[in-house]
Automatic annotation (TrEMBL):
Coiled coil: none annotated. Signal peptide: none annotated. CDD domains: HTH_XRE. It comes from Nitrosospira multiformis. This is Transcriptional regulator, XRE family. SUPFAM superfamilies: lambda repressor-like DNA-binding domains (SSF47413).
Length: 135
């Protein structure tokens, strides 16, 4: 069975979403990133296979961090599983979701507080235990 890499799919869906949010064209992105319009078009159609350097140039041109373009997506779990050819790898335990959202300042404050509390909770029992060395 051929291995299907879903990261490029997550990447291109995020690029398309940000282009739409910013009313930016693929041509403008290509110019800002120093990449050919044809290659940006291939990426937007899910046909391109960008290198990490190309993805970095695109993230800089969009003024977002590269991990955001690779880690979050607006695709639902079913679509991600279909792209992965089965079950997409999960980085969080059951009952937790990673999202990307547009929020007011106050909502962002609340979300940041919730995020910090959940990260602390997840680190608790899963944190590696330190062993004391006897010298």
């Amino acid at each position: 069975m051929a291995r299907n890499f879903i990261y490029k799919d997550i990447f291109f869906t995020n690029v398309l979403r940000i282009l739409d949010e910013r009313k930016m064209t693929q041509k403008e992105l290509a110019e800002r990133a120093g990449i050919s319009t044809a290659f940006i078009s291939d990426i937007a159609k899910g046909q391109g296979n960008p290198s990490i350097l190309t993805m970095e140039a695109i993230s800089i041109a969009l003024d977002v961090s590269l991990p955001i373009l690779l880690d979050t997506t607006d695709l639902d779990t079913r679509s991600l599983n279909d792209l992965a050819g089965g079950k997409a790898p999960q980085s969080l335990p059951p009952g937790y979701k990673r999202i990307s959202a547009v929020l007011t300042d106050y909502q962002a404050y609340l979300a940041t507080e919730w995020d910090a509390a959940n990260r602390k909770k997840l680190r608790g029992p899963f944190a590696p235990r330190k062993h004391n060395k006897v010298v």
